[in-house]
Write a structure and sequence with these properties.
Elements lengths: L8 H13 L2 E2 H14 L13 H4 L1 H17 L6 E5 L5 H11 L6 E5 L3 H11 L3 E3 L11 E6 L8 E6 L2 E10 L2 E10 L16 E4 L1 H17 L1 E10 L9 E4 L2 E3 L9 E3 L2 E2 H10 L3 E6 H7 L2 H11 L4 H12 L8 E7 L11
Helix pairs in contact: 4-5, 7-8, 10-11
Bound molecules: S-adenosyl-L-homocysteine.
Length: 351
């Protein structure tokens, strides 16, 4: 008999935990899986598990750098800190900081990164950056120009499932040796927003408490210190039901129980909640699709300029442009969210 799934160390540990203590919430399964996954490797690029926008083209980071520079200039060019959440290989930061420097903006660099393996890669790419485990230790005395690309989707989500007896937390349980979903024992109806309560049995809804907490803390910081936050990810602008948890390994979708700790677990980001949080805190905010935003910022002209400089690179530049902005590629699925405090200008590109 051949084993169907890869038995990672973490899978064995989860199995022992569930046998001893009973089913565990999906949020714990996802949180511990991703903590293990990201600490142990550089997951990006062709030889890794997935490719992100900054790895597709320098134009992506450049547009973000110019967006930040424009805000900073309209704010009166104060001293600022560039903050990146989950900077991966440091590619976005490298491209953004180069674009900023060309316009006279040279901020201190603060990176929030949980993975030791990726901190090494980032230190190699950037040099002179200060690392943080969480946003709580970021400088308190400067406006923050904060960026996060494909950061929020990696944070653990909680799932709730509608059962015959009402809403329950969705758990990971064992059936023989295999992980399966199961409904938790306690009623969770009060955790479901009224507008979503009435659903067919089996309906799943998701929430990401870690993303909400991060947005709240960032909003408070921006109000006190000034600056802007720009969060880009795949997800939805309107509230929705249904599960989006998925696992990616070697550029392919795999089962969410296939290899915990050895595959990337992600979920769509709920941008409606981010907007709600920004509104509640009295910040200005806007969101749109990645394709619309990059187009409005003039990435077409940037692509043209690159083609003029390196005509032999034209096919690759055109292909990268299409991947980043095309409706069937990243252009529609990926969303861009920005928030700024009332005493700062609002970000460009949102129409
Ligand atoms: N922004 C990069 C990388 C995206 S992958 C890019 O666009 O290419 C997700 C990044 O977030 C990785 O750097 C990962 O190590 C980091 N990360 C994931 N969960 C984290 C957490 N809870 N705390 C800090 N960093 C985290």
């Amino acid at each position: 008999m051949t084993a169907k799934r890869e038995d990672t160390d973490l899978a064995s540990r989860f199995r022992r935990l569930i046998e001893r203590h009973g089913p565990m919430p999906v949020s714990r399964y996802m949180g511990e899986s991703n903590a293990r996954y990201y600490t142990s490797r550089d997951p990006l690029g062709a030889s890794g598990d997935f490719t992100t926008a900054p790895e597709i083209s320098q134009m992506f980071g450049e547009m973000i750098g110019l967006w930040l520079t424009d805000l900073w200039a309209r704010a009166g060019k104060p001293d600022c800190a560039y903050v990146e959440l989950g900077p991966g290989r440091g590619t976005l930061a490298t491209d953004a900081l180069r674009a900023m420097a060309s316009q006279g903006l040279k901020p201190a660099v603060h990176l929030v990164e949980g993975s030791e393996a990726l901190r090494d890669v980032q230190a190699g790419a950037l040099g002179g950056a200060t690392f943080h485990d969480t946003i709580d230790t970021l400088p308190e005395d400067l406006p923050l120009l904060a960026v996060g690309n494909e950061f929020l989707d990696a944070l653990p989500i909680r799932q709730l499932v509608m059962t015959e007896k009402g809403w329950r937390e969705r758990m990971v349980a064992l059936d023989e040796d295999a992980f399966v979903f199961a409904a938790g024992p306690s009623p969770m109806d009060d955790a479901v927003p009224d507008a979503m309560k009435d659903q067919a049995v089996g309906t799943v809804i998701e929430a990401c408490p870690a993303a909400a907490a991060l947005a709240q803390t960032l909003a408070d910081r921006l109000k006190r210190q000034g600056g802007a936050a720009l969060l880009i990810d795949y997800g939805h602008l309107q509230p929705r039901t249904g599960e989006t948890l998925q696992a990616i390994k070697a550029h392919r979708k795999v089962g969410v129980f296939d290899a915990p700790g050895d595959m990337d677990l992600t979920a769509h980001v709920d941008f409606a909640i981010l907007s709600q949080i920004a509104s509640g805190k009295g910040l200005n905010h806007a969101s749109t699709t990645q394709g619309q935003w990059l187009g409005a910022l003039g990435m077409g002209a940037r692509a043209q300029a690159l083609v003029t400089k390196t005509p032999e690179g034209a096919p690759q530049i055109a292909q990268a442009f299409e991947r980043l902005t095309g409706a069937d590629e990243m252009g529609e699925l990926f969303k861009v969210f920005a928030m700024t405090p009332p005493d700062w200008p609002e970000g460009a590109g949102f129409g």
